[in-house]
Amino acid sequence: MSKIDELSQQLVDLETRMAFLEDTVETLNMTVFRKTEELKKLTQKNLLLTDQLKQIQATIEPNAEDEIPPHY
What we know:
Elements: H1 3-60
């Protein structure tokens, strides 16, 4: 094999590797994007549930300030 053929083959190999790397990077970018969106949704749900829990607790438990201490 001549030097030019070797260099051509190395160039093809490098281009092939680069194509696979570009595909991998794009796949990882999409995964990060989807997970970020999922995290945003879960954070919103968590905040909503926290608010709902606080509302429920407020209706069930009387305020400690309103209670008469046990020694009375």
